[in-house]
Design a protein that fits this description.
360 residues, alpha/beta, TIM Barrel, globular
Amino acid sequence: MHPLEKLLQTRIAIIDGAMGTTIRTYGMKEADIRGQRFKDAKKDLLNNGDIFSLTQPEMICDIHRRFLEAGADIIETNTFGATSISQSEFFVDDPREHGGRKDPAFYQKIIEDPFLDDLAWEINEESARQCRQWADRVANADGRPRFVAGAIGPLTVSLSNSPDAEDPGFRVVTFDQVKAAYLRQVRALIAGGSDLLLVETIFDSLNAKAALVAIQEVFDEDKVQLPVMISAAVGRGGETMISAQTVEALWTAVKHVKPLSIGLNCSLGPDLMYPFLSELAEKSEAAVSCYPNAGLPNPLSPTGFDLEPGDMARYLSQFADGGLVNIAGGCCGNTPEHIAAIARALAAKPPRALGEAVRS
């Protein structure tokens, strides 16, 4: 049994908060993310937060340290957009600006681009190493095990929907291309020392399927096996936002993977998440995770979101009191202070009873 599985049998595990939100509090500018290495990049990079792992590693490590000291058992790598496909948005000219279009031929060049391939590998491996360093350092200091989750985000393209209303069968990218990008990410995350893999913020279930196929291929070919966590973002009706799959349908589609956990993150904030989390907790045989946004976006708030640490602690306490969660934390808008409040509030609360998939 994996050590995290053992922990989940005894208490609610805490996952960290939002990397992007916390980076914002450091006041970084365009020049900071570029550093010397990317000083001549043709596009703005400030929204490419994964690059900070290469140009501002001290800041990223400081964020990991703060989340760990706030009480996180699981910290995520800074790799939400660290695939060649997602990185191409920041380093490759958009053909639509010159009368062309993004299509499978365009993305095949992206997949085969040596610069993007090497960059994706480096971000993932280095980010995992940074997490590993601090997870081990804090664990050795206080005797509590900490776990590194290799974060695998949803991409900037969709396999489920066409961007062309007049050509509903058109897709900008193929399943095999998406899988190839994820294969590279998965291998690098493992090489950097990840304890588990987290396919998160699932808007498009077919994209997530490609990630899960890539993970299984790596496990089979490289003779490795790590726990897999799965987490979706849902809209007001409780469906994944692009593929419109209900939480029950999502569980049915992925349960053959035997994930360590399935859950909900990001989305609408905790106040609107309860009924969908409740449905998932009823259906799932795996552990259930929940790390919502700190409410809806608010540009006037210091974090960009409305809910304060005490608000998030209160909502997640309600989820725990309802017997819904095994893993809890925060997504967008959640700083180390939010995670500390959540960790304190849930410390004495029992976890959701685990299903057979986790006990076996």
